[in-house]
Amino acid sequence: MPARLFRSAKADRNRFIALYVSMAVGLLVAAGLFVYEAKVIVADSLRDEEAFTVLGTANRVLHDLENAETGQRGYLLTGDESYLVPYRQGIRDLDDTILRLQQAAGSDERSLELLRRVQHAKTDKVSEMARTIELARSGNRAAAIALVQTNEGQLYMVELRRDLGLLLNDWRERRNAAMQDAHQRLVFGSAALVAIALLVCCLMVYTVYIQRRAFARVHAHSNALDQQAAQDALTGLPNRRRLLSAIDKLSNQAGDSRRVALLYLDIDGFKNVNDALGHSAGDVLLRRLAESLRAATRQNDMLARVGGDEFVLLAADCGDDSQLRDLAERLLASVRAVGEREYGGRFSIGVSIGVATFPDRVKSVGALLDVADAAMYVAKRSGRSTYSFGASSGAGLSNVIRLTR
């Protein structure tokens, strides 16, 4: 793996770790905040229930007093004992209601102070009502009515309503504050949840982006390795591996009726250049030859370097023998031209070419390479810088190798 790709992969790994740690920490922090907010909302709900109880009980105190006062006034005006029923009921319930109100108010100092004043006013009011009823029951109704007309009981009720009103206002404000706080925290929690969800989604999208980029780099590197494995490093032409793969692919196309030709080329005089000028000059010559041979072939044909000074041209749709002879002549001319241009006749540079065709001369596509290789050696032995056609044994054109010049 190249150092640059290794550094990139390491950086991507660090980004992954940072992203996952960030998401984990963010989710833990969010969970902690939500737990805290939930506790506060529960506390607000309890305060709301407490305030609701205080408000309901305080209103019950007024209701009991009003019932008792209504019974008192009715009895004083009519002398009917049935009016004492709501009076007695109100007096009985009043003590229990005051006790529940004190319990509901808890330890709040202001509420307890107001309740002490309410308790005192309630006691005075109850005492005033009891005195009037006793006077009336003893036959002194006029004195009882006169006591009522002094407005003593009304003053007690005014004090009691005032203090209960203050108590009610305090607890209404507390209830409203608790409800408003719970509402704000719910809104904040919902907004925070949406923000965290969006953030997590963005982090996940970014993570996917980094993963795709990392995979793309690895894939590109893998493709580059595959390309390098199938490409000759010196000339940039396909190598023997890629050539064999192309031949296998043609072999698998059983229904293809096209005529396939394979030309095996061996450079004549290359060893002299290597020995006289060195391997660097030989490499330069091979690159020049590759460029010239590629220019002399069709675009769809595969020109490969299979080793040393040997090249192979695979033509999947080669036409008749006359076209192959023209192609071989072009290849011969291109190689001679490179030798003249590079060395000015100092070295005799040429090429020996062996030609094999399927299905007329060779029984299978897989045998093209061996037959063309053998034909190339026949051409080399027959004087070099020429070409020969070869055929498989039993192909009907020759016994083993048939030469055509």
UniProtKB/TrEMBL annotation:
<keyword id="KW-0812">Transmembrane</keyword>
<dbReference type="InterPro" id="IPR029787">
    <property type="entry name" value="Nucleotide_cyclase"/>
</dbReference>
<protein>
    <submittedName>
        <fullName>Diguanylate cyclase</fullName>
    </submittedName>
</protein>
<dbReference type="InterPro" id="IPR000160">
    <property type="entry name" value="GGDEF_dom"/>
</dbReference>
<feature type="domain" description="GGDEF">
    <location>
        <begin position="258"/>
        <end position="392"/>
    </location>
</feature>
<feature type="transmembrane region" description="Helical">
    <location>
        <begin position="186"/>
        <end position="209"/>
    </location>
</feature>
<keyword id="KW-1133">Transmembrane helix</keyword>
<keyword id="KW-0472">Membrane</keyword>
<feature type="transmembrane region" description="Helical">
    <location>
        <begin position="16"/>
        <end position="36"/>
    </location>
</feature>
<dbReference type="InterPro" id="IPR043128">
    <property type="entry name" value="Rev_trsase/Diguanyl_cyclase"/>
</dbReference>
<dbReference type="Pfam" id="PF00990">
    <property type="entry name" value="GGDEF"/>
</dbReference>
<dbReference type="Pfam" id="PF05227">
    <property type="entry name" value="CHASE3"/>
</dbReference>
<dbReference type="InterPro" id="IPR052163">
    <property type="entry name" value="DGC-Regulatory_Protein"/>
</dbReference>
<dbReference type="InterPro" id="IPR007891">
    <property type="entry name" value="CHASE3"/>
</dbReference>
